[in-house]
């Protein structure tokens, strides 16, 4: 396995980013069908909008990880918060690449003037331990009810 390169995604990589998002969705247990057209628009938005983030981990010329995020002002306090939309690294490339993506995400959030950066772990205890090891603390849990 070659050394990974962390960098901003390019516009011509939307479909490679979309493939990583599809892998994330499949592994996440999200109870909604993956919609490629909708996800493609979101990926393109995060790649092109200079106020948003779309980092990729490239290994041997192929994209093996992605972290996309944006910022907003908290509705409860006048502070800017960064929130990740998707964070996925192919299982065979986890470890240092995952840590590097998190470090770059934090640096970006600081540069954007954020007071905090958030991550979602979708109820996976391994991911929760990884995030805790990187200094992220659980602050909220969400419950979801499918409305039929």
Automatic annotation (TrEMBL):
<dbReference type="Pfam" id="PF00583">
    <property type="entry name" value="Acetyltransf_1"/>
</dbReference>
<protein>
    <recommendedName>
        <fullName>N-acetyltransferase domain-containing protein</fullName>
    </recommendedName>
</protein>
<dbReference type="InterPro" id="IPR016181">
    <property type="entry name" value="Acyl_CoA_acyltransferase"/>
</dbReference>
<dbReference type="GO" id="GO:0016747">
    <property type="term" value="F:acyltransferase activity, transferring groups other than amino-acyl groups"/>
</dbReference>
<feature type="domain" description="N-acetyltransferase">
    <location>
        <begin position="4"/>
        <end position="148"/>
    </location>
</feature>
<dbReference type="InterPro" id="IPR000182">
    <property type="entry name" value="GNAT_dom"/>
</dbReference>
């Amino acid at each position: 396995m070659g050394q990974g390169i962390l960098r901003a995604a390019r516009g011509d990589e939307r479909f490679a980013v979309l493939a990583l998002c599809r892998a994330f969705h499949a592994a996440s247990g999200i109870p909604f069908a993956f919609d490629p057209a909708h996800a493609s628009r979101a990926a393109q938005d995060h790649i092109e909008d200079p106020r948003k983030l779309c980092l990729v981990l490239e290994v041997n010329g192929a994209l093996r990880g992605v972290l996309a995020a944006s910022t907003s002002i908290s509705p409860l306090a006048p502070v800017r918060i960064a929130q990740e939309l998707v964070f996925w690294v192919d299982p065979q490339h986890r470890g240092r690449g995952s840590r590097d993506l998190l470090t770059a995400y934090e640096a970006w959030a600081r540069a954007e003037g954020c007071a905090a950066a958030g991550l979602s772990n979708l109820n996976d205890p391994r991911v929760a331990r990884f995030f805790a090891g990187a200094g992220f603390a659980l602050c909220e849990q969400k419950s979801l009810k499918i409305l039929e």
